[in-house]
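Take a specimen:
=====
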Amino acid sequence: MVKQRIHVQVVGFSDVERHALNTVFRLSEERELSYAPWVPLTAPGVQAPTRLAEVALVDGDAAEAVLSHARETPPGQRLIWVGSHAPAHAWRVLERPIQWAVMLNDLDAVYAARRVDSGFLDLDVTQPGPLETGSESPNKRALIVGAAGERGQVTAWLSGVGVSEVDEADSTEAALECIGRRRYVCGVFDLDEHHVDTWQLARLFSQHNANALTVGVSEHADPLAPWLNRRRLKRDTERTGISALVGRPLQEAQWRRWLELLA
């Protein structure tokens, strides 16, 4: 497989954090998908790069962050914001202390999103796919992405409202294949899953299935979760196209309120 590289424009961050970032970039060179800092060429006689960095990684506490906050992200670039007061167009928002494994997963998700944008995965969200029909009426089908330990319970609840067929996906590419191949009445996305780009997948799912119920599952949606986490989660889901937000641990009463719409 041809090695792929994502360039990251780094704005702000302390010396310690930049050292950690450089370590992440260096270690990624051993992978098929690697990351490198994007540095504009400013030497005399040297032409500046014409392409943008695929990712803008911005320290929200840095003075330079005001430009990224006020200016929309250029087409084709993803903004990962670290800290508070993130702009509405931020693609991902991380808190301090930085969880480097989470950041690496977010960077990996950029590659998956670029493949969708480029058409490499042949996912057409402009035209609905053909419904899979039975002898008399279309089968009701749902897609569950992540939530591996809870699928049995969710599948049982879906069956109770007549959704008899359920597809399951444990990876971004598997979910993309399902979204591009079938139509669904419901999609369930584990927003706490860091190994799958569930946010981007939920957005694509809602575009491809305009009349479907798109459910986001997160521990931050629980009524006992910190208020700020619940507020940030609700803001992000509104931008993504998620129509229903339920908490973890799962509670049947909370789910039934939404699943009754499918009956």
